[in-house]
């Protein structure tokens, strides 16, 4: 008995994604089975948990398992579980819509990789996106899913050939749980399509990819009937009366079901960790690093955590998926457990199994739980120390780590003051020292010149802009290294962190700089001070006049010691918001009052000297005011800033050039 069959269309994005999966050149097609078994295992976890929490749930939990059923004649493979199942709405929401955040970008990249016949890139992409259930279309030309949610009466059938449409039908007689039947494509060894009705093949795949699944994965195997004499191939004379004895059918459990995290580290192979990672993360690529840890004594837990080798597409989106699952004494409690790790480690995947928590913990109670807080602290320390040692032991892998997760880690500089020192030690930053390699702060400090007392940095939009910024001139002339900080988060943490291991951090676009004594702000060098005073006196009339003439744009005009070749630059006071940060605030829709900065002039530049003389000769000359405006505009352009009235700037410049010809 069943309801009406309805045909639905996939959304455009889902359709594109499907087409790419169907025609994928991903070679390891076997992984479809891992995906289905993982989903089935999650469904069993969820049912067990729900039945523990809700004693009124009408569900049979007596023999929770996963079953593989094959039919060589019909060329079908069915993966069946008696887990939580899905409601009609869940089927339409979860299975009918594949598109999730980042799909459009993923589709675009995958298309490009396929067009370029770049199999490695394609595999990497599919792997890191995780197409889950849809990987079935790599091996099947039709997929039928029948499901009924535990506690509900009505079931749902979903069927699709992986093209534009899918069918939905309500069923009255579906068993609890989910079965997914694959109508297999013809075998094609060249295309890595194997015979997935062959029990040996299935056994091999399950052992390789899903051995640790905590639920039995069963299949029925047929063995030729024998009377126990071991004559396995004696079929020529064994059926004298022409009747083959019926083959023996036995149920075999294909996996060992041992929870990986509970086993001793020494007994777990690298491959087992990798497979486990793929199971929990739905990532098809290997993890970058594994952390297996346990605590014993009054508060026991075991944890296997992984650092992926790719950042997920939604790493910087609000509400992106997290990856740590909480178990209590082997019972799955929740996925996406946000209380175990801080937000900046949201890319870490894994399992934490706590011995002494109640099975009834909820997301809300977890946050206040002292044991969880303790675990949180220890796990963070463990992950950070792992990354720290990765940095010293394996530069290549550390580089990948930082490239993928650096900006997220830097959020920790703000949100996790307890681990700030370690995070600063782990961090790397682009620097003028090397155009390609980033540097750690410790390495920076070891290269500091005699007399250099600060770690210098400049923040902004891009490396090129920063490298060409006038602020950097005198530092480069002196051979002082400058960190070039271009991640948006850099603008924020540098405001809060004033030093690294006793060495102060100093923006080269803020405050006064006196490079001769290696000091910033107040200089206490007597001789230098006198020279400075002489110059200041000499330039005072010009500076005073400029301060008024440019009063709309700047709050002060002064002489600079950070310039060697440029005539002028604009700097902020120590606590001023930088132009880049100002831009970010505005982009987020925040209204800010106009922030005026300080114009600094290079006293050694002919333009400044000329301006001084021209001002002394005739302070009323209108051309002088125009030149002042141009000097300010040039300083703004040189740091990559935007002119408030570019047309006016161009007109004034043209007029001044014409006057000079
Ligand atoms: N056997 C099943 N029983 C119950 N629900 C299932 C089953 N298979 C899939 N689902 C539901 O459908 C959702 C989508 O499955 P799918 O495999 O496409 O993605 P996923 O497992 O969430 O992860 P990913 O997209 O990262 O691979 C699952 O999250 C789950 O809620």
From TrEMBL:
Subcellular location: Cytoplasm
Region (A): 1-363
Keyword Metal-binding annotated: no
Region ranges (Disordered): 217-249, 508-536
Ranges of compositional bias, category Acidic residues: 230-242
Main location: cytoplasm
A Pfam family this chain is assigned to: HSP90
Residue intervals of the Histidine kinase/HSP90-like ATPase domain: 28-188
Keyword flag Cytoplasm: yes
Residues bound to ATP: 35, 39, 81, 86, 100-102, 178, 363
GO molecular function term, any single one: unfolded protein binding
A GO cellular component annotation in the UniProt record: cytoplasm
InterPro entries cross-referenced by the UniProt entry: HATPase_C_sf (IPR036890), HATPase_dom (IPR003594), Heat_shock_protein_90_CS (IPR019805), HSP90_C (IPR037196), Hsp90_fam (IPR001404), Hsp90_N (IPR020575), Ribosomal_Su5_D2-typ_SF (IPR020568)
Keywords from the UniProt entry: ATP-binding, Chaperone, Cytoplasm, Nucleotide-binding, Stress response
Listed PROSITE patterns: HSP90 (PS00298)
Region (C) location: 584-661
Subunit structure of this chain's protein: Homodimer.
Stated family: Belongs to the heat shock protein 90 family.
Biological role stated in the UniProt entry: Molecular chaperone. Has ATPase activity.
Official protein name in the record: Chaperone protein HtpG
């Amino acid at each position: 008995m069943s309801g009406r069959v309805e045909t639905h269309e996939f959304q455009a994005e889902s359709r594109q994604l499907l087409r790419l999966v169907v025609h994928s050149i991903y070679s390891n097609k076997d992984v479809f089975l891992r995906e289905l078994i993982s989903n089935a295992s999650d469904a069993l976890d969820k049912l067990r948990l729900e039945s523990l929490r809700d004693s009124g749930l009408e569900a049979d939990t007596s023999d929770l398992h996963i079953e593989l059923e094959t039919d060589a004649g019909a060329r079908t493979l069915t993966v069946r579980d008696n887990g939580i199942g899905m409601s009609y709405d869940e089927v339409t929401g979860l299975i009918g819509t594949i598109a999730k955040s980042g799909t459009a970008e993923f589709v675009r990249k995958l298309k490009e990789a396929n067009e370029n016949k770049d199999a490695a890139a394609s595999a990497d992409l599919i792997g890191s996106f995780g197409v889950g259930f849809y990987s079935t279309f790599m091996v099947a030309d039709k997929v039928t899913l029948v499901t009924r949610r535990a506690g509900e009466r009505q079931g749902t059938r979903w069927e699709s050939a992986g093209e534009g449409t899918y069918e939905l039908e309500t069923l009255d007689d579906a068993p609890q749980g989910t079965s997914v039947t694959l109508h297999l494509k013809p075998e094609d060894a060249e295309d890595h399509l194997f015979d997935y009705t062959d029990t040996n093949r299935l056994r091999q795949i399950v052992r390789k990819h899903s051995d640790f699944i905590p639920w039995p994965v069963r299949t029925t195997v047929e063995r030729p009937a024998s009377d126990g004499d071991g004559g396995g191939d004696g079929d020529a004379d064994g059926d004298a009366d022409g009747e083959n004895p019926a083959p023996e059918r036995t149920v075999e459990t294909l996996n060992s079901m041992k929870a990986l995290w509970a086993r001793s580290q020494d007994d777990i192979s690298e491959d087992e960790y990798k497979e486990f990672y793929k199971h929990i993360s739905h990532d098809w690529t290997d993890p970058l690093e594994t952390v297996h840890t346990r605590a014993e004594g009054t508060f026991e837990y075991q944890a296997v955590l992984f650092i992926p080798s790719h950042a997920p597409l939604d790493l910087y989106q609000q509400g992106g998926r997290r990856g740590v699952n909480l178990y209590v004494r082997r019972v799955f409690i929740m996925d996406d457990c946000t209380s175990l790790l801080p937000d900046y480690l949201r890319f870490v995947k894994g399992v934490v199994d706590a011995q002494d928590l109640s099975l009834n913990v909820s997301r809300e109670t977890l946050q206040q739980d002292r044991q969880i807080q303790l675990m949180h602290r220890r796990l963070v320390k463990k992950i950070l120390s792992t990354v720290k040692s990765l940095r010293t032991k394996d530069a290549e892998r550390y580089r990948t780590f930082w490239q993928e997760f650096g900006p997220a880690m830097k959020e920790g500089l703000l949100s996790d003051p307890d681990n700030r020192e370690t995070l600063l030690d782990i961090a790397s930053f682009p620097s003028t020292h090397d155009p390609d390699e980033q540097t750690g702060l410790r390495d920076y400090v070891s290269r500091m010149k005699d007399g250099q007392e600060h770690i210098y940095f400049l923040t902004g939009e891009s490396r090129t802009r920063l490298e060409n910024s006038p602020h950097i001139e005198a530092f480069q002339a002196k051979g002082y290294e400058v960190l070039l900080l271009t991640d948006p988060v850099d603008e924020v943490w540098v405001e809060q962190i004033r030093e690294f291991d006793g060495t102060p951090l100093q923006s080269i676009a803020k405050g006064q700089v006196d490079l001769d004594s290696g000091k910033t702000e107040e200089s206490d060098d007597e001789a230098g001070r006198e020279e400075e005073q002489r110059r200041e006196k000499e330039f005072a009339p010009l500076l005073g006049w400029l301060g008024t003439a440019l009063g709309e744009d700047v709050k002060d005009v002064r002489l600079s010691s950070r310039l060697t070749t440029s005539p002028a630059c604009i700097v902020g006071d120590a606590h001023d918001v930088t132009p880049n940060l100002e831009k970010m605030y505005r982009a987020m829709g925040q209204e800010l009052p106009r922030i005026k900065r300080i114009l600094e002039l290079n006293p050694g530049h002919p333009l400044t000297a000329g301006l001084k003389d021209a001002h002394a000769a005739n302070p009323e000359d209108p051309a002088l005011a125009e030149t002042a405006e141009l000097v300010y505009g040039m300083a703004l352009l040189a740091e990559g800033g935007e002119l408030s009235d570019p047309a006016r700037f161009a007109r004034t410049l043209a007029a001044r050039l014409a006057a000079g010809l």
